[in-house]
Specification:
Structural class: alpha+beta
Radius of gyration: 17 Å
Shape: elongated
CATH topology of the largest domain: 434 Repressor (Amino-terminal Domain)
Largest sheet: 7 strands, mixed
Order of helices and strands: EHHHHHHHEEEEEE
Number of domains: 2
Distance between the termini: 7 Å
Number of helices: 7
Helix content: 25-40%
CATH architecture of the largest domain: Orthogonal Bundle
Length: about 210
């Protein structure tokens, strides 16, 4: 059975439809939505629709998101409605938005349909591989963990999966803890930190098998 990395080159609409968009495009808990993801992403309105759908799938309220990014509700509404094109927002705002999303710059480009000519400004200064900042320290602090048991918590992955985890303080959306029984537990902003858990670091990516 082939092993693949969890960032295949899929179409943006496919990533959204599958509920992906965390680091490494892992699947969060199931959610329902009467509004489908955009079939194509070609303009500002499509990009706003894509962001709105991503927020829903990830369990972010619009209020929570705009507060964390540090923008006003009117500004976020303009993004979501396509009145302001996400592809041309200021680089400082793009950096904050990407940090809150907690996914790789390259994943966000695909999910939001950011044109290639706008990617030089729609990026973050986070270290590699999340962003386009310094890479050496993150590479030195990255650990590869093979799951002996299934991962549970804010993400579910089967035993045998491999996790790329960066140690110490980081901006990853999902943090990995080792419980007293030796099992690993994932925590996102909406999941309580387990008592007496050992913090292993932030999840950069995952590698797992598919049928």
């Amino acid at each position: 059975m082939p092993r693949r990395k969890s960032d295949p080159q899929n179409e943006p609409s496919s990533l959204l439809a599958q509920g992906r968009g965390v680091v490494g495009k892992l699947r969060p808990g199931p959610k329902t939505d009467s509004t489908p993801p955009p079939a194509v992403i070609e303009n500002a309105e499509h990009r706003g629709h894509a962001l709105r759908y991503w927020l829903h799938v990830q369990g972010f309220s619009q209020t929570q998101f705009q507060q964390r990014v540090g923008i006003g509700r009117t500004t976020l509404n303009r993004y979501l409605n396509g009145e302001t094109d996400l592809a041309v927002i200021k680089s400082e705002t793009a950096d904050k938005l990407l940090r809150v999303m907690g996914i790789r710059d390259t994943d966000a480009w695909e999910i939001l349909g950011i044109p290639s000519e706008n990617r030089s400004t729609f990026r973050s200064t986070r270290p590699w591989p999340l962003g386009h900042g310094p890479s050496s320290q993150v590479m030195a602090d990255t650990n590869l963990i093979t799951l002996e048991h299934s991962l549970f918590g804010s993400l579910a992955l089967p035993a045998g999966s491999q996790l790329e985890v960066t140690r110490g303080t980081n901006t990853c959306r999902h943090q990995i803890y080792r419980l007293e029984n030796g099992m690993l537990y994932a925590v996102d902003p909406n999941t309580p930190v387990p008592p007496n858990g050992e913090h292993l670091g932030g999840l950069l990516a995952a590698h797992f098998e598919t049928d």
